[in-house]
Amino acid sequence: MENEKVCTLALIHTPGIGSVTIRQLIGYCGGASEVFRSAYRKLIKIPGVGEKVARAILARDSLNMAEEEYRKCIDSGTALHFFTDPSFPSRLKPLYDAPVVLYSRGTFDFNAARTVGIVGTRQISEYGKATAEAIIKELQPYFPLVVSGLAYGVDITAHRACLLHHIPTIGVMASGLDVVYPSSHRRTAAEMMENGGLVTENALDTKPDFMRFPARNRIIAGLSDVIIVIESAKKGGSLITVEFAQNYHRDVFAVPGMIGSAQSEGCNALIRDHKASIFTSVADMAHAMGWNEMETINNTSERAQMQVSFDGFTQDEGQILALLKQNGTIQIDELSWQSGMHLNKLATLLLNLEFQGMVRSMPGKKYGLI
């Protein structure tokens, strides 16, 4: 197992290989270690792998670096979550561009029943600051995990408000875990370890280069059930996060702002263009998300006690019902990944099960048993 993890890290550090290609390689070869044992002739037949990439793999230059990195993570108390591991976030697993590995420190549950992404401008106004703090306070009864980016402005305001109200919060970083950026947020980052923590797809010692921030934003979107944009200019990272959220079928809410305010141009445009629902209150958002009606079953033994008869259903329908029984509520992308069914086929089966009174659909493209 340790060798498999080291080999996966080595693939990440092999030039010319991205997360999609790594999944292809591991899937075709049967494991990361098998990739390095494969013949050149076999590698070049794998989609996304050309002659240059195949030669880079077989050179095995990244293996020593990967082993050193793995040891450094173990020694520093950094947890590694590979996409093949049970600990990898279930919300990210179905995403085609999800990271191959996540590094984390802290105490939190990736698979919390409800996750909320808070994003916005670094140039936060007093209105934005007060709104962000009020939203976090109002979220408390729903017991969410709050996800943000540890940046100036809206991000750090949300993290600090979570600490004040004892809400678990994680900061998704565009650097390695040991390179807190901006450095002025180190104290807050340290405090978050007690009820939350830090997450990144970047190796230790990685500096926060410009291009790593959009990649960071896709993780924020992927980990969140719903994104709330507090304030945003006409252009900015928050709008990139919204694009990812829409691609991942996540709900997006935007806080409306004063006409003419530079900090609210982005939010007002999102609402105008129907790219986000207007945010009026946490209670209204919770109602739209179905949180008021949803019964979250966190305990596995409680799930096991649910009695559901699958008699009279087809094999595919029975598989869907079994997965819904096991998970409680689940997003359609995750259900597709767990069942191995194409989304079009799955949507048809779910609709039939709704007509039969077995399944209910909820906001955020989630489904649960009735």
Strand order, main sheet: write it out.
1-2-6-5-4-3-7-8-9
* Radius of gyration, CA atoms, in whole angstroms: 22 Å
- Helix share bin: 40-55%
**Amino- and carboxy-terminal Cα gap:** 40 Å
Q: What is the total number of structural domains? A: 3
Name of the level-1 CATH class of the largest domain: Alpha Beta
| Contiguous uncertain segments of 5+ residues | 293-308
Q: Please provide the count of β strands.
A: 12
Task: Categorize the overall geometry.
Answer: globular
CATH topology annotation of the largest domain: Rossmann fold
GO molecular function: DNA binding
Organism: Dyadobacter flavalbus
Protein name: DNA-protecting protein DprA
Family: Belongs to the DprA/Smf family.
Describe the protein's architecture and organization:
- The structure is a single chain.
- The protein contains 17 helices and 12 strands.
- With 370 residues, it is an alpha/beta fold.
- It folds into 3 domains: 73 residues, DNA polymerase, domain 1 (Orthogonal Bundle); 186 residues, 3-Layer(aba) Sandwich (Rossmann fold), CATH 3.40.50.450; 70 residues, Arc Repressor Mutant, subunit A, CATH 1.10.10.
- The chain has a 9-stranded mixed beta sheet with strand order 1-2-6-5-4-3-7-8-9, sandwiched between helices. Strands 10-12-11 form a 3-stranded antiparallel beta sheet.
- α7 packs parallel to α8 and α10 packs across α11.
- It is globular and about 60 Å long.
- About 4% of the residues have low confidence.
Descriptive labels:
370 residues, alpha/beta, DNA polymerase, domain 1, Rossmann fold, Arc Repressor Mutant, subunit A, 3 domains, 9-stranded mixed sheet, 3-stranded antiparallel sheet, 17 helices, 45% helix, 14% strand, globular, DprA_WH
